[in-house]
Design brief:
This protein is α/β, with parallel strands linked by helices. It folds into 2 domains: 140 residues, 3-Layer(aba) Sandwich (Rossmann fold); 65 residues, Alpha-Beta Plaits (2-Layer Sandwich), CATH 3.30.70.260. 27% of the residues lie in helices and 24% in strands. It is built from 6 helices and 13 strands. The strands form 3 sheets. Strands 2-1-3-6-12-13 form a 6-stranded mixed beta sheet, with helices on both faces. It has a 4-stranded antiparallel beta sheet with strand order 8-9-7-10. It is globular, with a radius of gyration of 17 Å. The structure holds ribulose-5-phosphate.
C-alpha cells in the first residue's frame, strides 16, 4: 500500500517535466501504469508518444493516447520509466516486466530519462533483484553457461516470450560492483539481445517517492 502511494508520488512528480508538444517515451510497469492514468487529462498537450511495450501501448490507448513507432519520430524529448533497482548514481536494473529491450532503445533515443521509483528500489549495489537478460531462444543454454561463469545463477523465465519473440534469463546471485563495465561485458556475449542493466545510459533524473515526499537525484 505504502509502496503504491510512493509510486504515485514519483509518477505525479514526473508530470512537471512534460511540456506542451513534447515527444514522449513511455516505459512499462506498475509505476508507469499510474503515470499513464495521470497522463489522460494531459493528452491534448502531448506531441508524439512512443511506447516501450505492447502492454503500455494498450494502456495508453485505453486512456485515449495514440502511440507512434519510434522510427517515425526523431529523438524524443523525454523518456519516463520505472526500475526494479536504482543507485544514487542513477544506474538502474530493469526488466522485471520483460520489456527491457524496447525500454533500452527508447531510453537511448531520448534526450532526457526521468526514472520514477518508490524508495524501496534504492539500493547501494545492484543485483539483489535478479538481473533479466533477453536472449535469442537458440542461445539460451549457451548464455546461461556464460552467466554461471560470471558468478550468477540463471533461471529461465518459464512461459514468457518478449514482445520481440525472445526468452528471458533471470540471473540471481550477482553483486554488480561496476555496472558500466559489466553491462559492456554482457553486451559482448553472443546471443544476448539486452541486459536489464541501464548504467551506460542511466537515468538523468531519479524521482524517489518516499513517505516524506519526493526526493530528486540528478547530475
Ligand atoms: C519493466 C521494467 C519496470 O520498469 C520495472 O520492472 C519496474 O516495475 P514496477 O514499476 O512495476 O515496479 O523494467 O520491464
Amino acid at each position: 500500500m505504502t509502496e503504491d502511494t510512493n509510486k504515485r508520488r514519483a509518477a505525479t512528480a514526473a508530470l512537471s517535466y512534460i511540456k506542451d508538444g513534447i515527444a514522449l517515451g513511455v516505459g512499462t510497469g506498475s509505476t508507469v501504469d499510474i503515470l499513464i492514468e495521470l497522463l489522460q487529462p494531459l493528452a491534448a498537450k502531448l506531441g508524439q508518444v512512443v511506447s516501450s511495450s505492447e502492454r503500455s501501448t494498450r494502456r495508453l490507448a485505453d486512456v485515449g493516447i495514440r502511440t507512434v513507432d519510434l522510427g517515425s519520430v526523431g529523438d524524443l524529448d523525454l523518456y519516463i520509466d520505472g526500475a526494479d533497482e536504482a543507485t544514487k548514481h542513477r544506474h538502474l536494473l530493469k526488466g522485471g516486466g520483460g520489456a527491457l529491450t524496447r525500454e533500452k532503445i527508447v531510453a537511448a533515443a531520448s534526450r532526457r530519462f526521468v526514472c520514477i521509483v518508490d524508495e524501496t528500489k534504492l539500493v547501494p549495489t545492484l543485483g539483489r533483484f535478479p538481473l533479466p537478460v533477453e536472449v535469442i531462444p537458440m542461445a539460451q543454454a549457451y548464455v546461461a553457461r556464460q552467466m554461471v561463469k560470471a558468478g550468477g545463477q540463471p533461471i529461465w523465465r518459464e512461459g514468457f516470450v518478449t514482445d520481440n519473440g525472445n526468452v528471458i534469463l533471470d540471473v540471481r546471485g550477482l553483486t554488480i560492483l561496476n555496472p558500466v563495465e559489466f553491462e559492456g561485458e554482457l553486451n559482448q556475449i553472443t546471443g544476448v539481445v539486452t541486459s536489464g542493466l541501464f548504467a551506460r545510459r542511466g537515468a538523468d533524473v531519479l524521482l524517489l517517492g518516499t513517505a516524506d515526499g519526493v526526493q530528486t537525484l540528478k547530475r
